[in-house]
Amino acid sequence: ATPTSIMVGTGKGAENGILIKGADSLELAHKLQTIVLDKTGTLTQGKPTVTDFITVEGTANNNELKLLQLAASIERNSEHPIAEAVVQYAQSQAVDLTVVQNFQAIAGSGVQGNVSNKLVQVGTRRWMSELGIDTQALKSRWDRLEYLGKTVIWIAVDGKVQGIMAISDALKPSSARVVQTLQKLGLEVVMLTGDNQRTAEIIAREVGIKRVLAEVRPDQKAATVEQLQAEEKVVAMVGDGINDAPALAQADVGIAIGTGTDIAIAASDITLISGDLQGIVTAIQLSRATIRNIR
Ligand code: ADP
Ligand code: MG
């Protein structure tokens, strides 16, 4: 490509809220075959809220607000969007947070810590199983919530499940339309998420994505992109989180959500400033036009 056509393409991108870092990505974007989309913060708004809080009945710990205090006190130490939702929910219930010792975040699983000699663990059902914690008591409630496309987190105190919380994160208004447009352009659209399989599939169906790679640990996201590239595909990754940065760097074209983390933006080739996914389509069209001008 000539420097002039690249400059024109880059300029038009900027006019449309799309920052294109190098000439390479503009030249590559028209060759894309697979678009990998992160779920939280990319397809969804990334502003999760707690919609349900259910506690186990008949236990000594059946004091809802006390349990909420334990969970939110732990979550206050986490930077995960889910953690923010839990803390906000606790604040809305006028619950004061308390001191936590030995806080630990287990990527892709959850968080834990000690509150006044109690071990509090908050995270996925899979993690609870790995810890040998029985989840039977709230299984039917959990089932119903996940079928609604919500992310359910489990709260255990001293190794016993005491409650669950359902967290909902609305789709961006343009997500379904953009997925459909990309598919019409002949691209395969894939969802990549650390969230559980069932929730991921329900959200995927809502936006028309057929291929879902869920429960992917943060350190496995880049390897997953690599596997897609090994299918002889030119792959773009679109993401917003710290967890997405290695995958953004691994992809042939890394596309960051401008409202996401600085680390994701730094690792990417293209940034969608407002976070509007329509920018993916615009970038591909710009690339096609740029290449046409060159030939
Ligand atoms: P993603 O950002 O794609 O949702 P993560 O790997 O960050 O994926 O998280 C995967 C899952 O681990 C989340 O859906 C959630 O269930 C659980 N999890 C992660 N962090 C926390 C946290 N701070 N509190 C509760 N659950 C968490
Ligand atoms: Mg995300």
CATH architecture of the largest domain: 3-Layer(aba) Sandwich
List the ligand species.
Answer: adenosine-5'-diphosphate, magnesium ion
What global shape is seen? Answer: elongated
- Give me the CATH fold name of the largest domain: Rossmann fold
The overall strand count is: 13
Low-confidence stretches: none
Structural class: alpha/beta
Q: Alpha-carbon distance between the termini?
A: 9 Å
| Strand arrangement in the largest pleated sheet | 1-13-12-11-2-9-10
- CATH class call of the largest domain: Alpha Beta
- Write the CATH homologous superfamily of the largest domain: HAD superfamily/HAD-like
Sketch the major β-sheet. 7 strands, mixed
User: How many domains is the backbone divided into?
Assistant: 2
Residues in helix, %: 40-55%
Oligomer: single chain
Rg computed from alpha carbons, rounded to a whole number of angstroms:
21 Å
Strand content: 15-25%
